[in-house]
Amino acid sequence: MSLREYERRILAEMEHALAEDDPDLDGHLRSFGADDDSYLDDERPGRWLLWMLIGVAVLVLCAMLAGLYFSAPVQGTAPPTTPASPGAAQPGAGGGTG
Question: What is the pTM for the complete model shown?
Answer without folding.
Answer: 0.36
